[in-house]
Write a structure and sequence with these properties.
With 61 residues, this protein is mainly alpha-helical. The protein has helices at residues 2-22, 24-34, 39-60. Helix 1 packs across helix 2. The protein is flat.
């Protein structure tokens, strides 16, 4: 289980690094825009992201 968790974490880092690598200026603007979003909106997006990920894992597995 720990090996699979490590692989998933490494894959997440690769995927998270794609946008800053390919589009650094756009990524910087997006981060600046996100800094202005309210905590409630960020929490909602985080919750929806977690639910979508859990749902997709359920469907795939």
């Amino acid at each position: 289980m720990w090996e699979e968790l490590g692989k998933a974490f490494c894959l997440m880092l690769v995927l998270e690094g794609i946008l800053p690598f390919l589009y650094p200026q756009r990524w910087r603007r997006m981060v600046a825009t996100l800094a202005q979003v309210s905590d409630q909106q960020l929490r909602l997006v985080g919750l929806l992201s977690m639910l979508a990920g859990a749902g997709l894992l359920y469907l795939i597995h």
